[in-house]
Amino acid sequence: MGVDTTGSSGDRARHTDLAASTHLVGRVAHGFKNVLTVINACTELARDSLPHDNPVREAADEIHLAGLRGFQLSRELFALSKTCCAIARRLHRTPTSCRMAA
């Protein structure tokens, strides 16, 4: 009788999927943070050039606040991807399978 290796092959496939998902989440968070950096920088420049009583300044303030909320979301995505990577490493003892975008 042969040895059934279906379980280990399935485990490897799930691990590969988890590692790929983890990597994707990290890359998305990184890209999102880069976009928000540009949005927030431009918004700050616009806000600084507007008088406090200008009605457009209120819109710029809202854009800036949305950008700050986006930064928080990107931090949460990074934390999620790091957690998933740590779990994959512990379960499968393959520390090189999860590479995060910095």
Textual characterization of the structure:
By secondary structure, the chain is mainly alpha-helical. It contains two helices and no strands.
Helix content: over 70%
Number of strands: 0
Largest sheet: none
The SSE string, one letter per element, is: HH
Low-confidence stretches: 1-6
The fraction of residues assigned to DSSP E strands is: under 5%
Terminal CA distance: 48 Å
- Mean of all residue-level pLDDT scores: 79
Overall form:
rod-shaped
Give a short synopsis of this structure:
The protein is mainly α and 102 residues long.
Core attributes:
single chain, 102 residues, mainly alpha, 2 helices, 0% strand
Topology (SSEs and partners):
Elements: H1 6-49, H2 55-92
Helix pairs in contact: 1-2
